[in-house]
Amino acid sequence: EPIEKSFQLTTTTEQDSYLKAPKYIEFVVVVDNRMFRKYSNDSNAIRTRVCEIVNIANKLYRPLNVRIALTGLEIWSHGDEINVQSDADATSNLFEKWRETILLPRKKNDNAQLLTDIDFNGATVGLAAVGSICNSKNSAAIVQDHNSRTSMMASSMAHELGHNLGIHHDTTACNCYSNSCIMSPEIGDDPLNEFSSCSLQEHQRYLINNMPQCLLNKPLSTDIVAPAVL
Questions:
Q1: Any catalytic annotation for residue 1?
Q2: CATH number of domain containing 58
Q3: Which pairs of Cys residues are joined through disulfide bonds in the record (predicted)?
Q4: Long-range contacts of range 46-53, CB-CB < 8 Å, 24 or more positions apart?
């Protein structure tokens, strides 16, 4: 059998310093009107659910030295601000544009996700641009509220954010101890709870090549959204 090369990266002092620095994502979640109505127009219930999902996703990112700080939660209680539709590509494009032109001017953020109760076409439950973190045009993702379990939703949230952070889908050559790798192309009945060796390498390579600066900015504790019910 062929011997595979071990994963090695040659880094400059600047890149090495960047890699070792803790990373923070100032993260905004937007909840569409369908999801608002799904939870009986109860903003507190939605707030609690979103905080629980983000908290789990944050734990999943600890091995990457990345912290997810929920710095904004917007609920479209009076109607959607974009045309949320079953075509995931169209919805993603519209949400990216909305974030760039409407959200960013009034709420600084590194990344935003739209949670929606619409059923996307086919088996799609989420969509995100790869390697777009810190980009004003497309550092965003959309995720369908496809499961009542917060752990399942956290898997989807972490998966789409992984794409933004430069990580592609795992292949059959990738593995993780739990066999539930976060960047698996499909999600089954159990939550995905670990990044594979492929994901860790790809993420590190992306950071070294791009060094996205917004991740170095630590948010103030006063900027972080707290759950409504502790």
A1: no
A2: 3.40.390.10
A3: 134-214, 174-198, 176-181
A4: 46/75, 47/73, 47/75, 47/225, 47/227, 47/228, 48/227, 48/228, 48/229, 49/150, 50/115, 51/225, 51/226, 51/227, 51/228, 52/150, 52/227, 53/150, 53/153, 53/154, 53/157
